[in-house]
């Protein structure tokens, strides 16, 4: 326990962490960009118990200013930075999992960083601390895991720069990682995020009290520079909406806080306070070292490199937040697309949130992303006897009498029959995953769902399915040509604006495609228009009114057949049914059927 | 000319401006927040000639770091900051207009600011320069205009903080402003923008070389702090997309520039250079004074205050840019909505742009926003004989044989007849403004168009119409109950997703509403579905195919009548026509007509 103070006491007033353990590696630690650390200390905390099989360990990677104290150990303990997520019965359930949270290499909370004594010189490293990378951080964590006797992690979990570490774990040690949960992260920083880090480092390094990094023995360090860097960072962690909520009502009423920074506006008093407090607990050289590691982090400059860096042997859960502008959701989508290209098992959701980058630390959207993480992690372990699986819970819910799926099963039966045994299937507009779940039970192994609705995505994750959030109208660029044996577009075509684009896309991605849609030429519809002079609807599959139906495209079986001829699409099978009578229709389907099922493929 | 150097020579290396004129006001200038400047110098440049009527003067308000040199005076002259906009034949045409661009109060390029000598102490003001506001800046400009013998400005034009000044001109001196063009601006800063300014000021004031603001006689001023503030600012002026374009390709290859700031990444070398250059030409105390004026600027904390601050006696053109995250487009929309509430003549477009806040200074989107400004300003003056009016140009274009409006006029004839003489009209989905132009010629005075398409908005502005960009599916919240005598929804209902919401909204806003839509129960459509088993389309108003029509709602005349009954809507008139035969239909319209025209109103 003594080691921890050796490397953290350079941070004035920093509170010692009571439950921290330390391990010292006295062998030299070689760094990715050259240079060696002759001796490295790792500070970490653990929660829960390692089971006998040693297969329930999860490593949690903290973000820029975090530390090993991810959660309270007991009710007397100080709050942790992710108490909502980690603990008994929480999504990362310490009754079930053995959780390890190390302070990061280069940090200032116990693990060796620029504030530590360099054994060679017996002085603090300061600016002589070698440039470290996210790979180095992960390498040290791997060393730690090894020493704890763990061969393979059940999961690596992290948000922000913690997410970078999680991605890097999978890249460097794919055989030692079962699954990855990465929140609010990116394959590398975009130029805007990089720019803010650069300005922060400039503020620190050009602070006259920086003294070339050897400020430790001076009365003042680069406190203004570090505070300015922290203030900039704080703005980037919040969304404009969140700032409006926090500061607009009392815009001109600054809080009475102890800071020498400007206090004219409420947002200014907040930032000044945050900057002032941060200086008390964080080392400026660590801030430089960690932001530089973050800025150098790059999972792949080209798409090909990124694809190569994402192993298919892990299972992945990627979560972004819609208002995160520091690591915007498109960057998470780049990771997801690379994983899809590898045929890696991945689920993804861009959580609608107003909380910005910090959303992954906050309660606001926790009901969604917390439950996604809970279900995902539970599905990485064998089901406990007596416990209801997450899928069983979902099934029970969706069998409720109010479920719209309750009575409509005939078309699913047919689709399941039409899919070749063992085929890989992409289900577009997969809903809560009932069709995919049936295929899974039939033994299909490569199954992917695409869905927009967050709750349905959660339901799919609970079923242990891979589901990716995407808008069909924006195209299926993530998917490669002929990547799936079968693409299913079930009762979705009629809700799509860009019909030509979506059909071209599914024929590109699937060797065969199953398309189902309501038939506007169903005899009841014909009668309604011809005899009553009313827009078709109100019967068969077209239940809703002209002004509130989610359907925006109306076609008949004959229309679709003509479309296929025009576009050079091969029709392999056609089935039709009268879902009101729950019957398959063979005679004059364009008149007698309200639902059509086509199996199509691309010619040539 | 000597005065200019007196107040700008504190900025080391700043280049003198050759064409600057100065005026000195030796009376005391009282400031909004208290305090007096005993003597004020205004530096300004002028372009073009004031006409005899003295009614062709435009004042241009510069942004934070700009100055009076808005454009080149001749080919030998240094480039101006808005050369693309101002000059002979340019949108702000100096052959036509007399353009005045003053350096702002508090600045450091000729006009009195913190670097000027305080006559009372014979020392520079420094931090003793009183807090100034945007109102003070505009008050000084008003004084200048007065001295130039101009009673009323044709227009006030400005972007960013220049836009703030333009808004403030209209608020303080509505009788002296004919029109306002405000680009990339806001009714006040949001908390995020405010926060960046606060951090910038903190970096300057807490720089040890700030010396309480009296750094002028020291070897070094707060150069690091000012450079850091400028770097932060620069990030906020660019969009993430623009930064990607600028820096991603050579991310790790910094430019060889003269700066002592970090040069590891290309974006870092850019920012370092910008920061270093800025220090050479700008005074830190001016930066503090001007950003504080910007941060204190507030056209109204509540919507009511904002509405009160926007006079209806001026004509307004508001332009925002979609990727501007410093002054996001919703803030421009707040101004527009306030103007709409005042029944002020306003046009608005949120230009689709990837260039961020700086878009208004760049060529990328200039073809659109430049032409909008050109047309808007021309329409503020009486048409010159022999010159084609901007409306005539548009008319000529839209009469080309390819125009979809070429043959379809019967419904417009009917709508024009249905509108009460002199009624105020809101045309939703107004296109290029042909209907409104006809009503204008008939003598209607209060006419407003709503449209999404940028080019059509430009066409409306060319016609001298007031047009506001908005998405009908997002509602008409900007408009008050019963604000218009008549709301027209012509051939637009079928392209709207939220039919119930839009109909409820138009009935709220209009005393009467004219709704036209294609009739799905037209006999040809009935036959196509009943006999051919094909989706209606290909004839009458429904020309396109089921898979590529912009229409997403399909209804018959009978459906709409039932809808009106269900929702308690009064049908005042109904007309129907066969547009293929160009005939009005009286017999069995739900069978014989392909287009319906309803006049409806809210019951009670």
Word description of this protein:
The structure is a homodimer. Among the domains of chain A are: about 195-290, Rna Polymerase Sigma Factor, Chain: A; about 390-600, Rossmann fold (3-Layer(aba) Sandwich). An 8-stranded mixed β-sheet of chain A has the order 1-4-8-5-11-12-13-14, sandwiched between helices. Helix content of chain A is about 35%, strand content about 20%. The longest helix of chain A is centred in the middle third of the chain and has 16 residues, at about 265-280. By secondary structure, chain A is of the alpha/beta class. Mean pLDDT of chain A is about 90; it is low at about 1-15 and about 400-405.
Strand order of the largest sheet of chain A: 1-4-8-5-11-12-13-14
Largest interface: A-B, 74 and 74 residues
Name of the CATH architecture of the domain at 390-602 in chain A: 3-Layer(aba) Sandwich
Distance between the termini of chain A: 69 Å
Q: What is the residue-mean pLDDT of chain A, rounded to a whole number?
A: 92
CATH class of the domain at 390-602 in chain A: Alpha Beta
Give start-end ranges of low-pLDDT stretches of chain A: 1-13, 399-406
- What structural class do helix, strand and pairing data of chain A support? alpha/beta
What is the C-alpha radius of gyration of chain A, as a whole number of Å? 28 Å
Task: List the total number of helices of chain A.
Answer: 19
CATH topology of the domain at 390-602 in chain A: Rossmann fold
Strand content of chain A: 15-25%
CATH superfamily (homologous) name of the domain at 390-602 in chain A: Vaccinia Virus protein VP39
Oligomer: homodimer
Largest sheet of chain A: 8 strands, mixed
Q: What is the molecular shape of chain A?
A: elongated
Query: Strand tally of chain A, please?
Result: 22
Helix content of chain A: 25-40%
């Amino acid at each position: 326990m003594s080691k921890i103070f050796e490397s953290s006491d350079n941070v004035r007033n920093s509170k010692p962490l009571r439950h921290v353990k330390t391990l010292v590696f006295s062998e030299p630690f070689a760094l990715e960009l050259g240079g060696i650390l002759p001796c490295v200390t790792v500070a970490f905390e653990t929660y829960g118990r390692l089971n006998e099989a040693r297969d329930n360990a999860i490593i949690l990677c903290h973000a820029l200013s975090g530390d090993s104290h991810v959660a309270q150990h007991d009710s007397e303990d100080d709050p942790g930075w992710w108490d909502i997520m980690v603990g008994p019965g929480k999504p990362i359930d310490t009754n079930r999992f053995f959780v390890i949270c190390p302070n990061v290499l280069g940090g200032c909370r116990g693990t060796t960083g620029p504030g530590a004594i360099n054994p060679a010189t017996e002085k603090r490293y300061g600016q002589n601390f070698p440039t470290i990378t996210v790979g180095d951080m992960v390498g040290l964590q791997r060393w730690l895991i090894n020493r704890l006797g763990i061969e393979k992690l059940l999961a690596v979990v992290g948000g922000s720069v913690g997410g970078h570490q999680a991605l890097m774990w999978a890249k460097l040690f794919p055989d030692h990682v079962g699954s990855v949960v990465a929140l609010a992260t990116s394959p590398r920083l975009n130029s805007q995020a990089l720019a803010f880090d650069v300005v922060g480092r400039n503020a620190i390094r050009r602070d006259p009290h920086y003294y070339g990094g050897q400020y430790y023995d001076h009365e003042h360090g680069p406190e203004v520079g570090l505070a300015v860097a922290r203030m900039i960072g704080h703005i980037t962690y919040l969304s404009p909406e969140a700032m409006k909520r926090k500061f607009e009502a009392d815009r001109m009423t600054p809080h009475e806080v102890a800071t020498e920074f400007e206090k004219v506006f409420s947002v200014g008093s907040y930032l000044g306070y945050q900057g002032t407090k941060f200086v008390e607990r964080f080392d400026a050289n660590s801030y430089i070292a960690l932001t530089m590691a973050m800025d150098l982090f790059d999972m792949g400059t080209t798409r090909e490199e990124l694809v190569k860096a994402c192993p298919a042997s892990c299972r992945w859960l990627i979560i972004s937040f819609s208002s995160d502008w520091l690591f915007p959701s498109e960057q998470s989508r780049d990771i997801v697309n690379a994983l899809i290209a590898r045929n890696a098992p991945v689920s993804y959701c861009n959580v609608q949130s107003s909380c910005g980058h910090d959303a992954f630390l906050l309660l606001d959207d926790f009901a969604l992303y917390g439950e996604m993480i809970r279900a995902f992690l539970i599905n990485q372990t064998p089901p406990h006897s007596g416990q209801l699986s997450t899928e069983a819970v979902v099934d029970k819910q969706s069998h409720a009498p109010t479920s719209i799926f309750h009575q409509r099963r005939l078309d699913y039966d047919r689709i399941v029959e039409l899919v070749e045994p063992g085929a890989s299937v992409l289900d577009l507009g997969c809903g809560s995953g009932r069709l995919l779940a049936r295929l899974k039970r039939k033994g299909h192994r490569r199954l992917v769902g695409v869905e927009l609705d967050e709750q349905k995505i959660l339901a799919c994750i609970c079923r242990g399915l891979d589901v990716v959030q995407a808008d069909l109208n924006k195209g299926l660029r993530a998917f490669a040509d002929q990547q799936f044996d079968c693409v299913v577009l079930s009762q979705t075509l009629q809700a799509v604006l860009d019909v030509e684009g979506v059909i071209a896309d599914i024929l590109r991605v699937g060797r065969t495609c199953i398309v189902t849609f309501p038939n506007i030429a169903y005899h009841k519809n014909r009668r309604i228009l011809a005899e009553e002079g009313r827009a078709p609807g109100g019967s068969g599959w077209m239940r809703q009114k002209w002004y509130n139906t989610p359907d925006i495209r109306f076609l008949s079986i004959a229309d679709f057949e003509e479309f296929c001829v025009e576009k050079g699409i091969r029709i392999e099978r056609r089935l039709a049914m009268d879902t009101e009578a729950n019957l398959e229709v063979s005679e004059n389907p364009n008149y007698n059927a309200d639902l059509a099922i086509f199996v199509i493929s691309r010619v040539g």
